[in-house]
Amino acid sequence: MFRLLTRRLALIVPTFIGVTLLGFLLIHSIPGDPVEVRVGERGISAERLAYFRHELGLDQPLWKQFLDYEGQLLHGDLGRSVVTQESVWTEFKTFFPATFELSVCALAFAILVGLPLGVMAAVRRGSALDYGLIGISVTGASMPIFWWGLMAVLIFSVALGWTPVSGRIDDLFYIEPRTGFLLIDAWFSDEPGAFRSAVRHLILPAIVLGTVPLATIARMTRSAMLEVLGEDYVRTARAKGLAPGRVVVVHALRNALIPVVTVLGLQVGALLGGAILTETVFAWPGVGHWLVESVQRRDYNVLQGGTLLIAVLVMLVNLGVDVLYGVLNPRLRH
Amino acid sequence: MSPLLEVRNLTVDFGSFHAVEGVDLTVAAGEVLCVVGESGSGKSVSMLAVMGLLPRTGRVAAERVAFQGADLLHATPRGRRRLIGREMAMIFQEPTTSLNPCYPIGWQIAEALRAHYAAPRAEIRGRVVALLGQVGVPAPEQRVRAFPHQLSGGLNQRAMIAMAIACNPALLIADEPTTALDVTVQKGVLDLLVGLQRERGMGLVLITHDMGVVAETAQRVQVMYAGQVMEEQPAAPLFAHPRHPYTAALLDALPERAEGKPRLPTIPGVVPGADDRPAGCLFAPRCRFRTGQCDAERPALRMAFGARVRCHYPLDDAGQPTGRPA
Around A198, how many Cα atoms within 13 Å sit in the side-chain half-sphere? Predict the structure, then answer.
């Protein structure tokens, strides 16, 4: 277990270099730079343009810009937004709780629905429920998120009027961001109805964002359960005279969770990627929204810093999953 | 008094494949019955059917399946679960895969107890340690916390046995309990099973393909082939005078009986598969006494020389087929 963890920690170094380099190259391959975008179509004199570019270090060769950026990162400095002049870290801290809240709810939805569905499909293999689930999960996994998000808005918000179209909460509420997590802040605020409004705003984006992980989790649970249900120890459990539910949950699911948790770790990366699209569709003021805007503004520092922070987050979550894996699988512990 | 286990005309089908055909089986209280046969002869499947542990694809039919006089065939799943694990228990061939890798063995044994008895934690714990001690696991207080992957196959099988006898069953079914173990460990586990059987007066059904195991343990022997019972009689006369050519051939293949012969005798051919079962006697294609009648007509199980035999020409005391046209 210790060796496993040290190996994972060692992998962080090349991943860090890879992520920053890739992010840097991709961003700089987009035509235009922050100065040009801010100047817009009116145009300014070539001298002023050169002056601003020099200010931002954009006149340096690319390799030097990259090395300067890396050096700055190693000092723990993510830089400042070219547009707002605010530090990237501060902006991230402002936007991140919204994304975190959305992602956690989406993941919770995916697990709470996907896991039982997968288990039931495996137990009733070959039944209508099983085939229905396979169909739904293939559809769910292959639907583009932005399309599914728009369809969900059209159906549930526009046609049926069940949920609001966009945003995190109704405009009439003002909630002091204490934790940044609106559900918690609204719960403890004095404003009547604020919590309810926050929940209503959250439901649809959480479902949309949770659909792909749900499909993956359900499918993975089903196949892991099918394998485990054929194991000798499941037969042993039945031979003890245990109730079927206990055999399935305590003996089979406990073992099937090991591969499912691995997949769960990988889903977090997909989830944060999906959050960018979902936040755009639902005008959700989170990191995704922030990053998409910074692409439009060619805000190099925000883009690079934001990507890096998300990458670090995914790495941390996967590290946590590895630890959890060891807890779940006694064969790895000793 | 009704027998401990009574099975009449048991048939198990997987689709169109007859895994078990018309098997009768009785076990008296405190008796050791050995069921012998090659792989795929239906010995495990028939016992799994009795326990209700077959996969859903298996179709079970029988005239009667009764345990201590109570009908098992029409028992509700709940009613059956009250019996299995408590009154009748089973251990399996592969001890290491038969234990759940995610839980310590002590927990798994305790679960068998908790499934049938409500008792305080400390009492259950004490009984688990005592059980592990009884089945010869050294340092049971420490071993209760061990996971299956930390123990040898022999110790795991002992843990399985402890789990099976936890609730003091009247009947223990052991499905090839020593096959997966090292030869040096096999005898220890077998002695343990026989010792426990005597001590507790359990009925024991021992499924095996090892005639050596049969010789050491059995009171009565049932020989199975391709899903059918070929011969059944008490152990001593079976070894002295096998009545079915298949039994005779199995015994001839024992190394200790083949002394002086240049090579160990074998039975030519293989057990017929799902699609190539002969219309007549299932053993006919491999039998050295085969006649036209064997190919044409499937023999019924009948009494001959004090044994139950499924053969047109049961062997006499000299090992020669009786009534066979020359």
Answer: 22
| Chain B residues touching A241 at Cβ < 8 A | 81-86, 115-116
- Span B108-117, pLDDT tens digits: 999 999 999 8
Q: Which residue has the tokens 């190099």?
A: A300
Residue in B with minimal Cα distance to A257:
B102
Alpha-carbon gap, residue B270 to B33, rounded angstroms: 26
Residue A12 CA to its chain's centroid (Å): 19
* Nearest chain A residue (CA) to B115: A242
Q: Please give the single-letter amino acid code of residue A258.
A: I
Rounded to whole angstroms, how far apart are CA atoms B18 and A238?
Answer: 24
B 158-177 near A (Cβ less than 8 A): 160, 163
CB contact set of A56 (below 8 Å; sequence gap of 6+): A34, A35, A82
User: If DSSP states are collapsed to H, E and C, what string results for chain A?
Assistant: CHHHHHHHHHHHHHHHHHHHHHHHHHHHCCCCCHHHHHHCCCCCCHHHHHHHHHHCCCCCCHHHHHHHHHHHHHCCCCCECCCCCCEHHHHHHHHHHHHHHHHHHHHHHHHHHHHHHHHHHHHCCCCHHHHHHHHHHHHHHHCCHHHHHHHHHHHHHHHCCCCCCCCCCCCCCCCCCCCCCHHHHHHHCCCCCHHHHHHHHHHHHHHHHHHHHHHHHHHHHHHHHHHHHCCHHHHHHHHCCCCHHHHHHHHHHHHHHHHHHHHHHHHHHHHHHHHHHHHHHCCCCCHHHHHHHHHHCCCHHHHHHHHHHHHHHHHHHHHHHHHHHHHHCHHHHC
Decide: A331 and B101 in contact? Cβ < 8 Å. yes
A255–chain B nearest CA distance, Å: 7
Is the distance from CB of B92 to CB of B175 less than 8 angstroms?
yes
pLDDT in single tens digits along all 326 residues of chain B:
678 999 999 999 988 888 998 899 999 999 999 999 888 888 999 999 999 999 888 899 999 999 998 898 888 989 999 999 999 999 999 999 999 999 999 999 999 999 998 889 999 999 999 999 999 999 999 999 999 999 999 999 999 999 999 999 999 999 999 888 888 888 899 999 999 999 999 999 999 988 888 988 899 999 999 999 999 999 999 999 999 999 999 998 888 887 888 888 888 888 887 778 888 999 999 998 999 999 999 999 999 898 999 999 999 998 889 888 87
Q: What is the DSSP string of B113-127?
A: HHHH----HHHHHHH
Using the Cβ of A124 and the Cβ atoms of chain B, whether some distance falls under 8 Å is answered with no
**Identity of the residue in A233, A239, A331 whose CB atom sits nearest the CB atom of B90:** A239
Task: Please tell me what DSSP assigns to residue B58.
Answer: E
Hey, what amino acid is at A176?
E
- Minimum Cα–Cα distance from B55: chain A residue: A230
Q: Measured between CB atoms, does A235 come within 8 Å of chain B?
A: yes
Write the CA distances from B308 to A189, A300, B134, integer angstroms.
85, 90, 38
CA A188 vs CA A100, B49, B76: distances in Å? 19, 60, 53
- Compute the nearest-CA separation of A9 from chain B (Å): 26
Contact map slice: A 246-305 vs B, CB within 8 A? 251, 254-255
Using DSSP's 3-state secondary structure scheme, residue B24 falls into strand
